[in-house]
Automatic annotation (TrEMBL):
GO terms for cellular component: membrane; oxidoreductase complex. This is Formate dehydrogenase subunit alpha. The chain holds residues 230 to 923 of 934 of the full protein. GO terms for molecular function: 2 iron, 2 sulfur cluster binding; 4 iron, 4 sulfur cluster binding; formate dehydrogenase (NAD+) activity; metal ion binding; molybdopterin cofactor binding; NADH dehydrogenase activity. The keyword Magnesium does not apply. One of its GO terms (biological process) is formate metabolic process. Belongs to the complex I 75 kDa subunit family. In the C-terminal section; belongs to the prokaryotic molybdopterin-containing oxidoreductase family. Keywords: 2Fe-2S, 4Fe-4S, Iron, Iron-sulfur, Metal-binding, Oxidoreductase, Repeat. It comes from Roseospira marina. Residues 8-64 form the 4Fe-4S Mo/W bis-MGD-type domain.
Length: 694
């Protein structure tokens, strides 16, 4: 905190929107933010920012903020404001009663990727130690869980391989299923700079994103693949590499597991994986696939960047492994300018995963079934912990509908708007005996809650966020909690009220506990972060200043493992009734379900979700620009206005999911990734008609 005098001071902190994790200086007049200034010393942003980080902070003081705890006996009753003590006791009594009547596995919780590492850590600790179950999950379930699975299988750890700066050394960028100029704007600008300076770009995306053609940047190839054909495309590219002798034999021999390579090579060389065999399915000419594969393999440093267009599919995990296979086969891993880099969505989705928010893993991605690891946590926490993995969020919701799951603690997530198949989600919430929501606003999910615990904005938090490049940044409080207490404190109070005492004087003590229990965080402390600005994990005795590039000398798992990636078509099929494919995404000025961005001055920009539809598909339906249309799938229907554009190809429509009025996830399918249950948001068969048309 820098004092300027006369009530003015500045606080160095971190943006709470996307996974780029830009550093800012909050310039304050008393407890009022005067402006947010991007920090030139910021490890992720070096003085740059986007419109959200710079201007969209007004939600922190918006009148919609709930600042007093509320309870009610049933969701049909009005809320009653109460004290923190009564709200905590009410929630503890309900959870304890369910535990006693039905057992610990009938309750659980989800952590928030918007919260700090310290806040997330105490929630998963409460669920494991006080609830007595491993039923803990996080919003990564619906976004990058396949990244966690795929990169752990192939490389040995669930994280991107490079720092952002690495892109400045890339010669060829393969950008697949990501739209960084909207989703990760500051990194998108950095990528654009590198492209202007001469790197070559391959875009694989059904939609013509900005980077395909923008001033001074033109992609060498835009592979406008059909939604759902990712794995076929990556297999076809790998086939070209392996049948044209473009592989890096020295890298493979030195760094990779020979048996897995032999099995994968035999698979990928099969004629069924040739571009000519798959071009009809993928919807991209074989010659273009061949040219793109040759360019990636022979164009110098090849860097892969990807987003939810890779993960949110029934084969999301397979696709992540396919990208890892391609990078290993071409030796594009372990140095600057290369790598496999997930562009993670929320500000702390990397951190929420690192902190042990999965039902099968403690912090640092260590299995709950490992007796040695579990014993370490049991000794530290003074609790007997469950030996088997718990339920994932979709399984908790299914069990709730079936009547065998009774209570859920929800930290900073609006699953009634963000998760697929809204009707199923709300039916599950409605069926439970105790739903506790901790959030800034009365969101859609709160309509089904019995306890509302008001949360704090990033301007009130003290802790850390971890961005998409594993960079742990400090978040420092610019104002006191408007709720009268800290989220970590309320969670500790709830755990204590349920019979498992949890107490800390300060969030730095929570980080000290994380460091003591998590080998990849062993060297992390608030003191070190304050001294260095930020560090990228692993940060420990072997790497006291952190690790910008992973797998430099060897893979975390030892040898890199190739995985066979059979293409299996999604079961979501178009029919006469639902002839189009819907895919979803984000725009620059809004953020996810819009809880924050809709409550800032930018509310007038992109004030509604629009449906992008190709002019040909619009014409045959009699739809003109701006018409209100009905969007229907097997799951449900909504309506919104149409934008006619050739950004989407014929047969594909696209929308955002920022506005609850549209509620795009009423329509999306809840089919999931085979390995992780991550929903297939990117492929839903739909019909579009003029609203109110017969
Ligand atoms: Fe915030 Fe992301 Fe924009 Fe940076 S790029 S200012 S982290 S929203």
């Amino acid at each position: 905190v820098i004092q300027h005098g006369q009530g003015e001071h500045a606080v160095s902190t971190t943006c709470a929107y996307c996974g780029v994790g830009c550093s800012f200086r909050a310039e304050m007049q008393g407890e009022t933010v005067v402006r947010m200034v991007p920090e030139k010393t910021g490890g992720a942003n070096a003085g740059h920012s986007c419109v959200k980080g710079r201007f969209a902070f007004g939600y922190a003081t918006h009148p919609d903020r709930v600042t007093t705890p509320m309870i009610r006996e049933s969701i049909d009753e009005p809320w009653r404001e109460t004290t923190w003590e009564e709200a905590i006791a009410f929630a503890a009594d309900r959870f304890t009663a369910i535990q006693a009547a039905h057992g610990p596995h009938t309750i659980g919780g989800i952590t928030s990727s918007r919260c700090t590492n310290e806040e997330v850590f105490v929630v998963q600790k409460m669920i494991r130690a006080a609830f007595g179950t491993n039923n803990v999950d996080t919003c990564a379930r619906v976004c990058h869980a396949p990244t966690g699975y795929g990169l752990k299988q192939t490389f040995g750890t669930s994280a991107g391989t490079q720092d952002f700066q690495s892109v400045e050394h890339a010669d060829v960028i393969l950008l697949i299923g990501a739209n960084p100029t909207d989703g990760h704007p500051v990194f998108g600008s950095r990528m654009k700079q590198r492209l202007r300076a001469g790197a070559t770009l391959i875009v694989a995306d059904p939609r013509r994103i900005d980077l395909v053609r923008t001033p001074h940047v033109q992609a060498a190839h835009h592979l406008a693949l059909r939604p759902g054909s990712n794995v076929a495309l990556i297999n076809a590219m790998a086939h070209v590499v392996m049948t044209e002798g473009l592989e890096d034999r020295a890298f493979i021999a030195e760094r990779c597991d020979p048996d897995s390579f032999a099995e994968w090579a035999a698979f990928i060389r099969q004629p069924q994986n040739a571009p000519e065999a798959l071009e009809g399915l993928i919807g991209v000419p074989a010659a273009d696939i061949r040219a793109a594969a040759r360019l990636y393999a022979t164009g110098g440093n090849g860097a892969i960047y990807y987003g939810l267009g890779v993960t949110e599919h029934s084969q999301g995990s397979t696709m992540v492994m396919g990208l890892a296979n391609l990078a290993m086969a071409t030796g594009n891993i372990g140095r600057r300018g290369v790598g496999v880099n997930p562009l993670r969505g929320q500000n702390n989705v990397q951190g929420s995963c690192d902190m042990g928010s999965f039902p099968h893993e403690f912090s640092g991605y260590r299995s709950v079934t490992d007796d040695t690891v579990r014993a370490t946590f049991e000794a530290a926490w003074g609790a007997a912990l469950q030996t088997e993995p718990g339920l994932r969020l979709p399984n908790m919701l299914d069990a709730a509908v079936a009547g065998t799951f009774k209570g859920l603690f929800i930290q900073g997530e609006d699953i009634a708007q963000s998760d697929p198949n809204t009707r199923h989600v709300t039916a599950a919430l409605r069926a439970m005996d105790c739903v506790v929501v901790m959030d800034l606003f009365q969101n859609e999910t709160a309509a089904y809650a019995h306890v509302f615990l008001p949360g704090t904005s990033f301007l009130e938090k003290d802790g850390t966020f971890t961005n998409a490049e594993r960079r742990i940044n400090r978040v420092r409080p610019a104002m006191r909690p408007k709720t009268g207490t800290h989220e970590w404190q309320a969670v500790c109070d709830l755990a204590t009220a349920m019979g498992h005492p949890m107490a800390y004087d300060d969030p730095s003590q929570i980080m000290d506990e994380i460091a003591a229990l998590t080998p990849t965080f062993a060297g992390v402390s608030f003191d070190r972060l304050d001294r260095l600005g930020s560090v990228q994990w692993p940060c420990n005795d072997a790497a006291p200043e952190g690790t910008p590039i992973m797998h430099a000398d060897g893979f975390v798992r030892g040898q890199g493992r190739f995985m066979v990636t059979d293409f299996v078509a999604t079961e979501e099929r178009t029919t006469r009734a639902f002839p189009l494919i819907l895919t979803t995404g984000r725009i620059l000025s809004q953020y996810n379900v819009g809880a924050q961005t809709r409550r800032t001055a930018n509310v007038t920009w992109h004030a509604e979700d629009r449906l992008e539809i190709h002019p040909h598909d619009a014409e045959v339906r009699g739809i003109a620009e701006g018409d209100r249309v009905s969007l229907a799938s097997r799951m449900g229907a909504t309506s919104l206005r149409a934008t006619l554009t050739e950004r989407v190809p014929p047969g594909v429509v696209y929308t955002t999911f920022h506005h609850p009025i549209t509620g795009a996830n009423v329509v999306t399918t809840d089919r999931g990734d085979w390995a992780t249950d991550c929903p297939e948001y990117k492929v839903t068969a739909v019909q579009v008609t003029l609203a109110n048309a017969p």
